[in-house]
Amino acid sequence: MNNYPNLLKPLDLGFTTIKNRILMGSMHTGLEDRAKNYPKLAEYFRQRAQGQVGLIVTGGITPNLRGWTAPFSGCLKFKFQTKRHRLVTDAVHEADGKICMQILHTGRYGYHPFSVSPSGIKSPITPFKTKKMTTKDIDNQIKAFVNTAQLAQIAGYDGVEIMGSEGYLINQFIAKRTNHRKDEWGNSFANRTRFAKEIVQRTREAVGTDFIIIFRLSMLDLVSQGSTWDEVVTLAKDLEQLGVTIINTGIGWHEARIPTIATCVPRGAFAWVTEKMRPHVKIPLITTNRINTPEVAERILAGKQVDMVSMARPFLADANFVQKAIDNKADEINTCIGCNQACLDHVFKNKRATCLVNPLACYETEYKITTTTQAKSCAVIGGGPAGMSCAKTLAQRGHNVTLFEASDKLGGQFNLAANIPGKDEFFNTNRYFQTQFAKHNVNVQLNTKVSANDLSAFDEVIIATGVVPRRPKIDGIDHEKVIIYNDLITKKQVAGKSVAIIGAGGIGFDIAEFLSEDNEAVYSNPKAFCEEWGIDMTIQSEGGLTKAKHAPSPREIYLLQRKTSKPGKGLGKTTGWIHRLALKKRGVKTMVGCNYDKIDDQGLHITVKKKDDTQEQHVLNVDNIIICAGQVSVNKLYEELKDKQSTHIIGGAEFAGELDAKRAIKQGVLLGAKI
Ligand code: NAP
Ligand code: SF4
Q: What average pLDDT does the segment 251-278 reach?
């Protein structure tokens, strides 16, 4: 019997049937933006279709240059452009899948000087001004949507998704926040929604009945002067009347200052929003955000309030997510951990998206894992992210792999990360690798510290011995008040009521989060999360906003760095603001330009360089000083072995600066693919 009966049930749309309830939601990869990359895009989608996903939605394709996300982003305006899209639709159809193309017009979110918007109000998240649309401009943009939908049909798509949420152009018309027009396109709610309704009506007329139209409706704007629930329902009913096939849920504008998809958001935290819509329309509803396992998806669908679940990033992490659910092998799924580090953070830096836990994503035609013709005996030393990914890849290819780990468990730095509140998804990566080791017969030797002599019989030795925390040279570093971050996370030591954290990098922020959050329910319970971040679950207020209730930190916390730049500058583009905001709301004090003079019974003595180049001396009278000053490589074994036999070094052992799991896992996979 299958564990996911509701998830795997077909959905009959009348003119076509979707084979299960899983939508691979729209995710910009960057491959859409260049014609030459469409063969890569086609292979990326082909693999997801082969993995049995029910319905795919492409990344956003703009109807014209006014709607660009950034200069030269993927556009479908002319018939000759349908040829490249044919590669995608053919690949998906050959794999017995279905695919819709998302039509995305960014309006004032466009990162270029040609953007247009209802009232010419500049967006807070782009540096560009935006032109107020004339009535003629509005008609032209509606025609552009319809033209693109028709071209999508010619290109062989099964339908389109009209992007009406996340604060993009259609949403900008709907909300008072961005629509100050006094003509027939603004003022009243009926007028503000006219743009969306005209697009849907004219598109349906143009494409006929047997073509899927998904409308991504912003059900919870999470910005001031957004829609109220009554307005959202009114629009949903109108869209149903006008011929929309399916309504997908949009949560939060890009400029909203409430997290909606990061790891710290509880799983399935926004399913209640879509469920609220159920009594009001008859067409299928899709729910979304932070659904990353078949169990969560099944639980939501079993409530019978929604018809499909959308997952985007989980399909970067694992192309075979659905097939594994069909086979009742959910423990083999490479789970998306919600980190955004290789997907959205890349997209926002105009780099191709990929995935931290699956570096093959979006590189399907470039990186290939092939069965080896010459099985070798391989020793991998170190069971952190780099060692685990290398061991798994080698074994998957048919090599005989022994993985040595000095401690009593696998995971390395991931075990530390997973113990930070709101980051326990990292445990899933450890679980994934361990399942793979059992499947591919990796000989895992825990509690085993090997020396060079122990390794002489192996054909290949891969050193992935990782890092140890740096102990900076500060007078008094051995004082009993000092705690190194890993001892705190593993609970070997406990922090007092007041602390100073030395180092405001990724781990300094994590530690500040660890010590300042008193209510762990905010990471697992949607209600607690909504209360903390100020989400009105009745959505009676505009945008669904209410007063946030961030509990103050139970400790006095100072987060310090030597640089004078903004603390947390190096954190991920799409998640750094969440960490900075959460710590600010909990009253964590940050100090920059610090010189650490000494540590003694009084606490931490610092000299702070001010903006005017003057200096001030302070004594932070704290119970503990937590050291988060980066790491140094552990590479002694490599130095001993490198001239003796075929030896490789990867991950933090090779380079500790800017140590990150994305690089470590990618290095492990690519080396494993090569040996
Ligand atoms: P990091 O980000 O490089 O930060 C190290 C911090 O220590 C810096 O703030 C640095 O700032 C300070 N520092 C370095 N040498 C020092 C010294 N000798 N004395 C005093 N302070 C010193 O390293 P990390 O925090 O250990 O994080 C490691 C990696 O994990 C990062 O590259 C990051 O990508 C990843 N990570 C990311 C996240 C996230 O994005 N949320 C979370 C955890 C980890 P100053 O030089 O200005 O003092
Ligand atoms: Fe998920 Fe992180 Fe991979 Fe993005 S990079 S798909 S958030 S695991």
A: 95
